[in-house]
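Quick one, probably user error.
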């Protein structure tokens, strides 16, 4: 029997009240996900038969998650973002902003929080991070970004890539997420 796509327009809740997982198996964008920018994203068949999301240059993902504030503030102050990504590093002309904490706020220009560098490193702000752990070109890998307890850490396939314990992670500060949503692959530039 063929599995049917859910009808709900509400982002799914999995494993608890503070977790959102988006399912791309049904050849359409899941509820809560849309695109913005110069082009539209496209779902394509992946190498193993599943769906993958192809994101053209100057196009980003709007992720309306509906999560509640945490950390005694009005924004989301402790969180983890996990994504599986495959990119041809040789085609990058600049670093890629992996996410912005603001929701559709173009007035906030300092909101690119974490980058994938042309060398395949993942870290905060715009500088290149020298580390032994980096993304490999044209290979599916899992990136995890965690913010909380006064630090921002990034991981590639479970290995620590970057950690900064001296950046502003105060309540409702720069690295806190808007409760409406976040933007993936969007740059303030």
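Nope, works fine. Designed sequence:
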């Amino acid at each position: 029997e063929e599995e049917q796509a859910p009808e709900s327009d509400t982002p799914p809740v999995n494993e608890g009240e503070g977790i959102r997982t988006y399912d791309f198996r049904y050849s359409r964008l899941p509820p809560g996900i849309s695109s913005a920018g110069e082009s539209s994203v496209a779902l394509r068949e992946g190498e193993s038969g599943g769906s993958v999301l192809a994101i053209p240059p100057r196009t980003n993902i709007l992720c309306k998650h509906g999560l509640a504030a945490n950390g005694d503030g009005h924004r989301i102050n402790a969180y983890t973002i996990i994504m599986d990504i495959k990119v041809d590093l040789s085609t990058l002309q600049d670093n890629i902003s992996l996410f912005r904490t603001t929701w559709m706020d173009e007035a906030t220009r300092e909101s690119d929080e974490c980058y994938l560098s042309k060398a395949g490193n993942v870290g905060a702000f715009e500088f290149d991070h020298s580390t032994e752990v980096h993304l490999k070109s044209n290979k599916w890998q899992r990136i995890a970004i965690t913010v909380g307890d006064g630090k921002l850490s990034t991981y590639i396939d479970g290995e620590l890539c970057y950690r900064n314990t001296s950046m502003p992670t105060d309540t409702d500060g720069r690295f806190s997420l808007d409760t409406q949503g976040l933007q993936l692959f969007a740059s303030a530039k």
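The chain has a mean pLDDT of 79.
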